[in-house]
Amino acid sequence: MVSKVFKDSTSALEGLLFDGMTIMAGGFGLCGIPENLIAAIREAGVRNLTVISNNCGIDGFGLGVLLAGGQIKKMISSYVGENKLFEQLYLAGELELEFNPQGTLAERIRAGGAGIPAFYTRTGVGTLVAEGKEVRNFDGEDYVMERGLTADLSIIKAWKADAAGNLAYRKTARNFNPMMATAGKVTVVEVESIVPTGSLDKDAIHTPGVYVDRLFVGAHFEKRIEQLTTRPRPTAAAH
Q: Distance (Å, rounded) from C-alpha 75 to C-alpha 81?
């Protein structure tokens, strides 16, 4: 059997990247983003990318580095409020944006991975979201048709994997990663550790290895906090 394990992000992406491709990138804010793979795509220099991701990182980190390099042509996203460059490029007409309600985006990805070409939802009916889309009435309520999403490549961040590609995510870093792992023609995963096949608790496997084509242990994880909010520690009560 051909091994799914590669030595690094560059080798894991070898032969997969091309101009004009569509890439799904896991993560929510900066949580659970495939930062090593994003850096390798930046170095590869591919352009005119369509990127499907909940957001586009922040200025200078995450998907924001692809934006800064002029490599992204179109974003299919839900939230873009933390990236000033994104705003500037969009308002200047230099970046296309397909905006989605967050739940609709998640379901479009899940549907694509499940082989469902389209579905109907009440979310967005009567708003700009529904413009140009089919609307049908079911049981007295209007529903807008949304298309499932797939990609040429899904780049995923997981916590642990075994050599067969079975994945476990850590807490909220799971976010969009599991459904994106199912919706790419090729799925490449960066992990923090690879354990012997069979050693993962079977009830704790979030993505079966059948969906994973290539994986590697990331060289470095910065794991930035997007917005650090703290409050003063309470003072000890006087005795």
A: 13
Length of the chain: 239
Which CATH architecture group holds 9-116+149-217? 3-Layer(aba) Sandwich (3.40)
Task: Quote the pTM value.
Answer: 0.92
Local mean pLDDT, 10-residue blocks, the chain (239 residues): 93 98 96 96 98 93 95 94 87 94 98 98 96 97 98 98 97 96 98 95 96 96 81 73
Distance CA 29, CA 83 (A): 11
Contact 194, 160 (CB under 8 A): yes
| Structure-token pair, residue 133 | 């889309």
DSSP 3-state of 143: strand
Q: CA 68, CA 86: separation in Å to the nearest integer?
A: 9
Coil, helix or strand at residue 53: coil
DSSP tag of 172: G
| Residue type, position 150, single letter | T
